[in-house]
Design a protein that fits this description.
By secondary structure, the chain is an alpha/beta fold. The protein is built from 11 helices and 17 strands. Keywords: Hydrolase, Protease, Serine protease.
């Protein structure tokens, strides 16, 4: 059988590690202690080389942090690598018998420390999910306005990807089926699949993390890919099994954030899904002018994160740079790549399916209105969601004049 080895189309810009939110009483006595991180280095496959969690330098920084905590009689609570700032952030608790401000000054003067500071308190204004304001979809797609008429309720989306962390606090109750088609490995929660799932269906107004594009939709977490080093891989057989499951179990939308060689098995299964009215959303690869396979197949919603010349006009562009989303270990991260643009469109499609449940995949695909010009660098893409919704609900939802 022809093997199809597929590299995920993602660049994980920030791989954050968190230990949960401290309670408010303890937080008043906590400080942030920053240690220097080595410079990020990226491999040609767009994965991060070296990793922030498991590298030897990471263990060394943890040792230094513990030494600092011991010296100043602090309690090391948790850790959050911040590669965009070039620091490893450690949360430490100051004992009641020590002055908080004096302790910050002492620790900041330590040569091992980049800087230290008190944990400041902020109040949210508007959205109940703290990362919502930095979601590109919040600004460019007017997500709060879209959710007044559709949230994806009743729509099932098959996410064919690596493992999803279904007990993530922003994904609780969002996974209705979990299948592992990588039979040589036990099911595992992995970065790529969890990130894609969060963009599509993260819970709304739970005072945590982000808001999914379709927060009332549900996903089938179909693990056909596995994490290997800094990337995720799949093959014909695992993808084929996942597609078969999605077809047999009533998925309306299938998200496929991967690309590879043209494959007969996958092609036929996609055609079978389309014949049953299922909508296929696929990420494009920059390596092929037509977007690559399976994105270039007829009827597939092909999605990219960056505009390229000499590409088919049918390719959609959606937010895909610096996207906050869910990651394993109950954390959130910033991610970039066409994988995550495709997840945006899968979520949008779920909203459209809810509004027009009787429409077939082709009608849903044609209902997406695009702009004539792509706003380069703005991150908005070329989908005019306000006009798309205006046509479907016959009233203005956003950007009303």
């Amino acid at each position: 059988m022809l093997a199809l080895w597929i590299g995920m189309l993602c660049t994980v810009a920030v791989q954050a590690q968190g230990q949960g939110r401290p309670d408010s009483s303890a937080e008043a006595r906590q400080i942030l202690v920053m240690l220097h991180l080595p410079a990020a280095h990226f491999r040609p496959d767009a994965s991060y080389g070296g990793g922030y969690r498991n590298d030897n330098a990471g263990h060394s920084r943890l040792t230094i942090a513990q030494e600092v905590a011991d010296q100043y009689r602090l309690t090391l609570v948790s850790r959050w690598p911040m590669p965009t700032l070039g620091v490893d952030c450690f949360v430490m608790t100051v004992p009641p018998d020590r002055d908080l401000e004096d302790t910050v000054k002492l620790v900041s003067a330590d040569s091992r420390v980049e800087w230290a500071q008190e944990i400041q308190s902020f109040v949210t204004l508007g959205e109940a999910d703290p990362l919502y304001p930095i979601q590109p979809s919040a600004t460019f797609w007017h997500l709060d306005r879209l959710h007044t008429v559709a949230t994806g309720k009743g729509v099932r989306i098959a996410v064919i990807d690596s493992g999803v962390e279904e007990d993530h606090p922003d994904l609780l109750g969002q996974v209705t089926a979990r299948e592992n088609f990588v039979t040589q490995q036990a099911y595992a929660a992995e970065s790529h699949g969890t990130a894609v799932a969060g963009i599509i269906v993260a819970l709304r107004d739970n005072k945590l993390g982000i808001t999914g594009i379709a927060p009332d939709a549900k996903i089938m977490a179909l693990r056909a890919c596995w994490q290997e080093g800094g990337k995720s891989l799949c093959n014909s057989f695992t993808i084929g099994q996942a597609l078969n499951f999605a077809i047999l179990n009533g998925a309306k939308i299938v998200n496929m954030s991967f690309a590879g060689p043209r494959d007969q098995l996958i092609k036929r299964l996609i055609e079978a899904a389309q014949q049953r009215g299922m909508l296929i959303v696929a990420a494009t690869t920059a390596d092929d002018a037509d977007g690559g396979f399976p994105a270039s197949m007829p009827g597939v919603l092909a999605v990219a994160d960056k505009i390229q010349s000499a590409r088919p006009a049918s390719i959609l562009y959606a937010p895909g740079q610096g996207i906050p989303t869910t990651t394993p270990h109950h954390a959130w991260s910033l991610v970039s790549g066409s994988s995550f643009s495709a997840a945006h469109v899968s979520g949008l499609a779920a909203l459209l399916v809810q509004l027009r449940p009787g429409n077939n995949a082709e009608q849903i695909r044609k209902s997406v209105v695009t702009r004539s010009a792509y706003i380069s660098g703005a991150g908005s893409g070329n989908i005019d969601v306000c006009v798309t919704f205006r046509k479907l609900v016959e009233k203005c939802i956003c950007e009303c004049q």
